[in-house]
Structure formats: structure tokens, C-alpha cells
Hints:
The strands form six sheets. The protein has a four-stranded mixed sheet with strand order 22-23-1-24. The protein folds into two domains: 11-28 and 245-446, Enolpyruvate transferase domain (UDP-n-acetylglucosamine1-carboxyvinyl-transferase, Chain, Alpha-beta prism), CATH 3.65.10; 30-234, UDP-n-acetylglucosamine1-carboxyvinyl-transferase, Chain (Alpha-beta prism). The two termini are 23 Å apart. Strand 8 and strand 9 (154-160) form a beta hairpin. Helix content is 29%, strand content 27%. The chain is globular and about 60 Å long. It is of the alpha/beta class. It has 13 helices and 24 strands. Residues 31, 104, 176-178, 181, 203, 327-328, 351 line the site of shikimate-3-phosphate (S3P). Shikimate-3-phosphate (S3P) binds at residues 31, 104, 176-178, 181, 203, 327-328, 351.
Amino acid sequence: MDATVPACRPLVARRPGAPLRGRLRVPGDKSVSHRALMLGALAVGETRISGLLEGEDVLRTAAAMRALGARVVREGDGSWRVAGRGVGGLAEPADVLDMGNAGTGARLLTGILAGSGVFAVLTGDASLRGRPMRRVTEPLKESGACFFTREGGRLPMAVLGAADPLPLDYTLPVASAQVKSAVLLCGLGARGITRVVEPQPTRDHTETMLRHFGAKVVVQDTAAGREILLTGQPELAGRDIMVPGDPSSAAFPLVAALLVPGSRVVVEAVGLNPLRTGLIATLREMGAALPVVNPRIEGGEPVGDLVVEHAALRGVEVPPGRAPAMIDEFPVLAVAAACAAGSTRMRGLGELRVKESDRLAAVAAMLGVNGARVAIEGDDLVVHGSGRPPPGGGQVETHMDHRIAMSALVLGQASEAPVGIDDASFIDTSFPGFADLMRGLGAALSPP
Length: 448
Ligand code: S3P
């Protein structure tokens, strides 16, 4: 057996005997955490980060930035300091950079490397090694960077960054914040203006944070879509960053509380960037109230305390244009839809096929094995709810996918019979402490 593969941790979720209750904070936003470490490493001077997600994915990025010469130090719970090397100042890593399960880490780092003149080799776990990298290498090679990948553009991949990268001008063929960010991060090393146009807006944490570090970034709406213009070779200066609670992690206790009768849960300080709140909009359309109290701006990002009470949900149609604003939340929305009255059609989900697993197939299998009626129609996922939770009793294969694991465990809080998962270990990639935090609210999760 491969000694680097952690042992599986099966887990079973049962309907709790009482409502879910309490106030909680979810770990820091994964997207913001990766970017904070990366831009900290590219800045001159010190960046102090609070609330950093200390999940496996982000720890891999911390290790990679260290291997590229930045000083990255953990000072306490979520408090980190990064002493950067400046744009153009990264050093050649002495070994392969193993990005674990993290697509965001791998793709954004590829952009940085492309614009940095450095040679590096990237790999990851079996899930990441199966994911497409051409979506970033295709635009990035126009900068002058070279890439050698496995068949199909898969990791491991050798990158030879361009010594004098050209600025890119790229229109995204898929709605992907990772591709957008890789192009912009490459543009840091280039002379002149890097231009990205995204026909569908995606999360804008890279643009926001680049500005926070002192880069010139202009964003404007054009007929072709959202245009982002970055002026290359900026002097980035170390900054303080407060990482908001991850709305994609908040989604799990949120949906659990909606589904368990009598529940009331408050998720504090959760990120409410409008390009991330598609799940909240959809659940409101399905009949949830979800008031936000104490809305505020923290570290340049909108945050608030989200109040969740049990609600009877009804099926809705989710338009394809909303998919980027809730791309990671479809597995748990599908769980809510399976408990709702009527059908929910989630449209335009082709991108789910290239996540940590083929999430369209994994979600359909998760619900199907637990007695819900579900169909994949083209790029749409259709869930037929009966107004009651599905029977449950199924054993879910998680396919190294943290969000499939957590979604199945939420389903088990509502279904009549318990829901088992083959492996809870990948939950640590994005939501360390998930099981304990859910148990703190009253959820029933235990080993088989
Ligand atoms: C992310 C973008 C999304 C999302 C991922 C995080 C980011 O991926 O699924 O979890 O931080 O930029 P895509 O860009 O592939 O849609």
C-alpha cells in the first residue's frame, strides 16, 4: 500500500433525537486563504493573516510558498505571518511541489510559476492528478512559459516559467475563477497590461486582494463580459488580511439546520461576497428565510451572521447564470432539494464533472443510493422531492471529495435510516473539525 495514502475513515450520520441548536463559526474561506499566502509570498515586507483556513489544501499552499523562498510562519490558531520575496523574487524549489487534493492551489500556483521564470514540478493526490490542467496551461503558455504534463494535460507537470513573460489577453471559455486568477497572477510578472474577460462573473477574491496589496486592477463591464485589466510588475506591499468564514463550509450546517425540524443555528462572520451567495438566494426561493444580522466589511470582504431556522422547502429551477456563485454548493443543495416538495432543476452544471470528483455523477449516486429520485439530463441535475426526506440507509462513495462526504452526512441528519460514507478523511482538506462542530449543534455522527 502507498504509505502516503491516509487510511479511510468511515462515518455514519443518523437523524438526531433533538433539533440542531447553537452559534458557530466555520473555518476561514479556502479561496481567500490560498490567495493570502500566495500574494503574501509575492509581496515585499510582512503579511499578517488572521483566520486562515488550516485545512490540508491551504497547508499545501503554505508549504509550496515556503519552498519558493517565502518565510511562512504559523503563530497561533489561524494567525500566520508571511515574509514575501517580491514579484519576480521567487526561488527555484528544491523538490516537487505536492499540492495534495487542491485544484485551486495547483492552478493558481501554475499561474504564479508561469510568470516567475522559475522551474518547478507540481503533483497532487490521485484526485488532483486526474483533473484537467490544460485550462490553465493553454492560456499561460502564451506568456512564454513551458509546460510538460502527463497525457491529457494532467499532473505531474513540469513548469518552466518565462524569464520575461508577455502580458496575456484572454477571454475565459469556461466560468472559472481559478483560470482567471492563474492568468492574472502570471500577469504580475509581465510588463504591460494583462487583460482577462469573463463572460460570466466568477468569485473576485484575486482582484480584490491584488488591489489590497497595491496592484492596479481595473474592472469594467463590457459587451463581452466582465473585463479585468492588471498593470504588470507592481510593487506589492505586505498587508494585514482577515479571512472571513467560508460560505462554502457554512453551507453544510446551514442546510442541516434547515432540514432538522425545530432547529435554530447562527453561523457567525460568514463571508457574503455576492459572487459566492448563490446558495443563500436559492434556499430563500425554496422557502427559507435566512436573515443576515450585523452585516459588515472585514478585510475588504462583506461578512455577516446568518440565522438559520428549520423550514419546509419547495423545489425551484436554478438558472445556469447562477452556477458560478454557488459552484461548490450544488452537492448540498441537492440534499436540500431531495427533502423539498416538488422538483428542483439545477441548470448548467457541466463544470461539476471536473471538481475533486465528477460531482454530477457522485451527487446522483449519493441521492440514488439513499432512495431519492434524481436524474442527470445533459448538464442539468434534476432532483424530485416528495416533501419528505428520502429513506436513507445507503452507503455513499465519496471519491476523495470533501463536499460529497459532508453533503452525505447532512443528508443523514434528515433521512429516516442512517447514511454511511466510506471515508471522512478528505473533509480535512477544507473543513477541519467538521464532525465535532456538527456534534456541538446536536448532529449525530459516529463511526460505524
Ligand atoms: C475556486 C474556484 C472554483 C471553486 C473552487 C475554488 C477559487 O473553481 O470550485 O473550490 O478559489 O478560485 P473553478 O474556478 O474551477 O470554478
